[in-house]
Amino acid sequence: MELSIFTGNANRQLAASICRHLHIPLGDADVFQFSNENIFVKINDNVRGRDVFVIQPFSAPVNRSIMELLIMIDALKRASAARITAVIPYYAYGRTDKKDQPRVPITARLIADCITVAGAQRVLTMDMHAGQIQGFFNIPVDELTAQILQARYFVQKELDDFTVVAADEGFAKKARQLADRLDAPLAIVEKRRIGNNGHIEAMGIIGSVQGRHALIVDDEIDTAGSLTQAVRVVHDRGARDIYCCATHGVLSGPAVERLSNAPIKEIVITDSIPLTDYKRLPNLTVLSVAELFAGAISRIHDGRSVTELFR
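The structure corresponding to this sequence follows.
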């Protein structure tokens, strides 16, 4: 099968960069919204019998990005593509992965069902908010991690005496994996989420950061409430320079203002989500995941192990 890659409007720059690494052109497709907000898709290339990958993170506007992906998958299926893989660098609605309150949905599962029904036969994603979301799919899911990029970046900084800090208890396991890659100790910020409005209250810290550099890690930075609370706790406990890293830089609502006012030396995210100029803070570093996704796409297409990327 020949390989083809298409994208919607969520992150065309990342899709183009992935194609450059693979030395293939980005597929030609019309994807736009009519004045009545109905989305139209037309695949302009012949995809009959091809192995097709559709790159589309669920970034703002989130619901439009999701619908673009579903409609593109349907169009490719009806155009007789041999296999369709949904490449979702950022999987939104990841926090609605369980019923943690009465009469609430499990939206992460609903979206998984929609992707499967639309016709995707495989999913490639990165650093989901909750590991169990993989189990919501009845098709194969490959989940990449940006930790290899993050570890490589911070190793090059040659920081002395630094501690990796999990922004909350739920991220402790993945933070431990990064700490192991960096041969650094781990600390964990205790917090609680109050209500459904994103308000976070940091309670304390398990572990020591006194007199040490701190690297606070999380899977995503949304409103930055959780992260800046963690920064405050770490700063109050006597940390030296404070660094923050996350895979997905959503940076919604008051995030930019909160991060600008926090004592953070550097914030490191990836280009899984496109950034507007307003969100490009002076202390923000963006690592590209294009080569990582290109390697995974190449391995899936050739029937090789994706795990090779992390050895």
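Residues 147-287 form a domain with the Rossmann fold fold (CATH 3.40.50.2020).
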